[in-house]
Amino acid sequence: MAVTDVGETILAKDGGQTVMPILFKLNRWQWWLLVGLNIFFLVAGQTASVLLGRYYYDKGGSSTIMATLVQTAGFPILFIPLLFLPASENSPTPSDSLSGKYICLIYIGLGIVLAGDNFLYSYGLLYLSASTYSLICATQLAFNAIFAYFINSQKFTPLILNAVVILSYSAALLGVNESSDAPEGVTKGQYAIAFLCTIGASAVYSLLLSLMQLTFQKALKKVSFSVVLEMQIYPSIVASIVSVAALFISGQWQTLEGEMNGFHTGKVSYVMTLVWTAVCWQVCSVGVVGLIFLVSSLFSNVISTVALVVGPIASVIAFHDKMNGVKIIVMLQALWGFASYLYQNYLDDSRSNELRRQMDANETRVAAC
């Protein structure tokens, strides 16, 4: 068994005996394969979602609540892989009913926070270019490092601190230099509000990740890949309900038919844009929650910064966003910060394996005696 020390923190306790979930039966290459797959889901899903969100606004979409709703409305597709996963070996007992109610309340709370966070992101993207939006989101790593330290007992090392400082500085540099890159017709005031909304959304998102990790560690009685999907499905259901309610309360639902008729590329394009945005957000979310489960919330957030490189480049190709010197510097710094954190995880993994080999050798010597 070769997994990181961070992964070992999500071992569940049941009646004083340690429950060994399927994750810890994987060998090293299988674990890294799963990590790599979730990294791909996160980066590809996040990049595609941001581009489609910007496309929705550019082509005539204007409903920030609809843009919020599609970020969670794709949750039904996650029931498909859930059907093919084996049932957990740790079936809940009657004594778990209170725990079940407690976990239900956790999912409701996470869903409400998720809905508010998605709205802030949607409002930010309304007045920011796709590339600028992606780069500003780097601040979530700094916020998550703070929350992970206090909530998840995440240790700081010089390499992690370097990653946090570099990425935070990059986003700040972008924020004070990129107002000229806003979409056409956006005022400086709207840009400033959108910038602050995106910063706020990054902070809330980081808190959400740390709370999800805490739920894995402390609240759930069973840990499996089906639980990873459930962690995404149930909060998404709550967030979708909240978004639909907001759509009707705000009156924006009355403008949707006119918005669809006036969409620059047609009604079919309008519907498909929303559908594929919803699908891509779910792919991204599976990657996010999967990495929290496999490693930690901070690692999941660090991987999100890879989109700081992929997103702006894709935006330049798709929307002809400006690629000036500031953005190039920010992307290089994002790579630097990401590499620092990835190297720290490599060192942690190496130390964990060496410690495990020493413990095995000691046990062998004791048994021989």
TrEMBL record:
GO cellular component: membrane
Protein name per UniProt: Probable purine permease
Keyword Hydrolase: no
Family of this protein: Belongs to the purine permeases (TC 2.A.7.14) family.
Pfam family of the protein (one): PUNUT
Record keywords, A-Z: Membrane, Transmembrane, Transmembrane helix, Transport
Subcellular location: Membrane
Spans through the membrane: 31-57, 63-85, 105-126, 132-152, 159-177, 189-212, 233-253, 273-295, 302-319, 325-343
InterPro entries noted in UniProt: EmrE-like (IPR037185), PUP_plant (IPR030182)
Topology relative to the membrane: Multi-pass membrane protein
Keyword Disulfide bond: no
Single annotated GO MF: purine nucleobase transmembrane transporter activity
